[in-house]
């Protein structure tokens, strides 16, 4: 990293580090947001002159700029949507469920500071929401062919491209990764054989999908007790699930296909009224309106965001809460160098952070407080012996066609 100093021009600084504009604005130099001003005045104006004009302490401001640049470089200073090929620069890439992102970031920030002080090294990481990359980054993963194109550590959510045939053939079949799970893992997830028998994936936690119903919109005898009940004809257009713009959650679709086949997918499509982000589901439920869906397939995390719990029923269907996996891939070749990082991610402290956010951890020392909640996991044999990528496309085509026919709202 080239250190910013007082002799550099404003144009040079902001051209090389556009993210620093917000700091300039906070200190009375917002005029450089105007591109014309930046291009005409910026090359002529040295930083020391600009700071004297606004009476800002020169030393403190330059220190602030350099710290911001250092922090941005540690976090990647790019987005996967714009530059997926730059993932190889990272030590850690994390694509997380929405509810897990904030507690993860807080824990990682604290760890990163300690890690830098202890080792003198920066933790080059990028943390983004998984939902943002269903149709972007994961499509890119399907085209990656060299292990050198991947970060040392990848945390991802849902049954994504890391389960697809190209990734299995190019990487998983060649034992490039190491499983760092404790054995045995936490009893809640050990009971469903959650550990990868091929020792490639390190399973960190699970995003549990449950069913929420609005009581006053349901007849007492019609409240669902199983996932199969959702498929009944009387529930046509009465259900919301995660989705947007014609894309619906594979974490729901794949398990429903496994349980009930393609006819089950058609029935599910008939039952779905619309696709929403879980936060939008919470707003709908809290609105108290009578023209909203009566039933919601949503992450367990978001159920605690619902303000009036007395008006709803949270159902764990008889088949079990659907387990949408949160998994980690760690390169064998880098395992020793990133051991402190992976020890933190697999450790008790982070496991407790995860469990408190209602994402049960695999760490055996943590109480997930699931109270023997039944869980439904698709299983490794099925996932590793199915062309998951092709199956997703087939399911999506059938689902969207039926969804349109039966009056679903995009």
UniProtKB/TrEMBL annotation:
It comes from Methanolobus zinderi. InterPro entries: DUF1858, ScdA-like_N_sf. Signal peptide: none annotated. Residues 4-62 form the DUF1858 domain. SUPFAM superfamilies: Periplasmic binding protein-like II, SP0561-like. It holds the Pfam family SBP_bac_6. This is ABC transporter substrate-binding protein. The keyword Metal-binding does not apply. Keywords: Signal.
């Amino acid at each position: 990293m080239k250190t910013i100093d007082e002799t550099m021009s404003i144009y040079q600084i902001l051209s090389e580090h556009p993210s620093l504009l917000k700091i300039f604005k906070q200190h009375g130099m917002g005029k450089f947001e105007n591109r014309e001003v930046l291009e005409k005045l910026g090359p002529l104006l040295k930083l020391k002159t600009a700071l004297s004009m606004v009476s800002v302490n020169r030393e403190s401001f330059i220190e602030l700029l350099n710290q911001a640049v250092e922090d941005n470089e540690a976090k990647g200073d790019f987005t996967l949507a714009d530059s997926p090929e730059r993932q190889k620069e990272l030590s850690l890439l994390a694509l997380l469920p929405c509810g897990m992102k904030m507690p993860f970031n807080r824990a990682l920030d604290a760890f990163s500071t300690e890690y830098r002080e202890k080792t003198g090294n920066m933790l080059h990481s990028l943390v983004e929401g998984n939902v943002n990359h269903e149709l972007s980054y994961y499509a890119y993963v399907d085209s990656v062919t060299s292990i050198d194109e991947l970060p040392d550590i990848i945390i991802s959510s849902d049954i994504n491209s890391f389960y697809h045939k190209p990734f299995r053939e190019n990487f998983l079949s060649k034992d490039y990764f190491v499983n760092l799970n404790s054995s045995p893992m936490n009893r809640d997830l050990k009971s469903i054989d959650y550990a990868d028998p091929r020792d490639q994936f390190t399973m960190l936690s699970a995003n549990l999908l449950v069913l929420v119903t609005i009581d006053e919109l349901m007849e007492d005898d019609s409240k669902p007790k199983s996932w199969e009940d959702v498929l009944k004809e009387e529930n046509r257009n009465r259900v919301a699930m995660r989705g947007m713009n014609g894309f619906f959650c594979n974490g729901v679709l794949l398990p429903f296909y496994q349980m009930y086949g393609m006819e089950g997918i058609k029935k599910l499509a008939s039952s779905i009224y619309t696709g929403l982000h879980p936060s939008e589901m919470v707003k709908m439920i809290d609105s108290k309106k009578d023209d909203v869906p009566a039933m919601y397939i949503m992450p367990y995390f978001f159920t605690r965001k619902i303000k009036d719990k007395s008006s709803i029923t949270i159902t764990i269907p008889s088949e079990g809460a659907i387990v949408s996996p949160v998994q980690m891939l760690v390169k064998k070749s880098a395992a020793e160098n990133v051991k402190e990082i992976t020890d933190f991610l697999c450790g008790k402290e982070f496991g407790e952070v995860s469990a408190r956010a209602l994402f049960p951890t695999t760490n055996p020392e943590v109480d997930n407080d699931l109270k023997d909640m039944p869980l439904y996991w698709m299983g490794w044999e099925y996932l590793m012996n199915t062309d998951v990528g092709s199956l997703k496309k087939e399911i999506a085509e059938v689902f969207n066609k039926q969804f349109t026919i039966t009056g679903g709202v995009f």
